[in-house]
Amino acid sequence: MFKGFLSRRISYFLMILFIILNSILIYFDIFYLLALPMVILFGYLFVFRLDLIFLTIVFCTPLSFNFENLDLLGIGFYFPTEPMLLVFTLMFLFKALFQKNLKKDLLHYKNPIIILIFVQVLWIFITSIVSEIPMVSFKFLISRSWFIIPILLYGIHFFKKGKKQIKQFFFAYLFAMIMVTCYTLVNHMINSFSEEAGHWVMWPFFKDHTSYGAILALVIPINVWLLYESKKNYLRILLIVFLAILLIGLYFSYTRAAWLSIVLAIGVFVLYYFKIKLKWLIGIIIIPFIFIIYNLTEISYLVQKNDAEHTTENFSERVESMSNISSDASNLERIKQMELCI
């Protein structure tokens, strides 16, 4: 009882001291001490609760923005995720040396994909040694490492605990993505939902509408899965609202590939849900293929005649422009890239 009373008195004393010192520093226009409680909180979490830091990083990922123009030794990084990932990597490796469960997991990562990733990292390290500009090469190696170690290695350790952790991961990302989508839609509304504004209204969280649309297309199936898994009514209502927001955001992203990917994802789900047999699946693929070969001349003529442009705000015309390989700049650019790869 005496220890508890003493600890409370010490806590009160430290709080009063912090307020006095902060008041003095603010008088002299020094505001750095305001960050001290947050530094202490994150310091505690990094030492004792890496799982909460992991989820915090996931939540911050859609909300992070790039410091490309910040002159820090030529480093462009996403804030706050990449600094957090760097500290997380160092703390995780340090804890892995002393915690048996982490060490055991690290020694049993025998998945072929993980082995290939480690081989790639090793190769980057070897080539960095003989690089013409070692500083640049090692900076690249370090930046790759603070993605691989926290997300891949700790991620496996985190997800091994069960489905609850998987849901926490998805919810953390989904909530943040909803915030970004709402921000983007408000910006879009201010600019009358124009196609031209659709290229930049998601800034600074996404560089362009294609990456924004791609992430929306990835998050929508996650939202549907969480809706299917949720048993509580209030949560299901919330997820239905989230799904509506994401679908509206996807529509106004004006990203044709994202629209198409959702349609294909629905097709794959139908095949999986109804357990379509392989022979039927092959038939489904072969019949349209034969039809296309048989009518190749007519189809080729129709495709060449198609002059619909992807810059239109009309949904049907924008979808139609997917097959325009004669004048659509976006499609022609992709065809050129494929030709260069071949």
Report what the structure shows.
The protein has 342 residues and is an all-alpha fold. It has three domains: 128 residues, no CATH class; 103 residues; 62 residues, no CATH class. Helices cover 74% and strands 1% of the residues. It contains 15 helices and two strands. Strands 1-2 form a two-stranded antiparallel ribbon. Helix 6 runs antiparallel to helix 7. The termini are far apart.
Topology:
Layout: H1 2-27, H2 36-48, H3 50-60, E1 65-66, E2 78-79, H4 81-98, H5 100-107, H6 112-129, H7 134-159, H8 163-190, H9 209-229, H10 233-251, H11 256-273, H12 278-294, H13 296-305, H14 315-320, H15 329-341
Antiparallel strand pairs: 1-2
Helix pairs in contact: 3-4, 3-8, 4-5, 4-7, 6-7, 8-9, 8-10, 9-10, 9-11
The counted number of beta strands is: 2
| Count of helical stretches | 15
How many structural domains does the protein architecture include? Answer: 3
Terminus-to-terminus distance: 77 Å
Major β-sheet annotation: 2 strands, antiparallel
Which regions contain 5 or more consecutive residues with pLDDT less than 50?
none
Strand order of the largest sheet: 1-2
Shape: globular
- What is the element string, with H for helices and E for strands? HHHEEHHHHHHHHHHHH
Please indicate the percent range of residues in DSSP E strands (runs of 2 or more): under 5%
Radius of gyration: 26 Å
| Helix-and-strand structural type | mainly alpha
Q: Averaged pLDDT, please?
A: 80
Helix content: over 70%
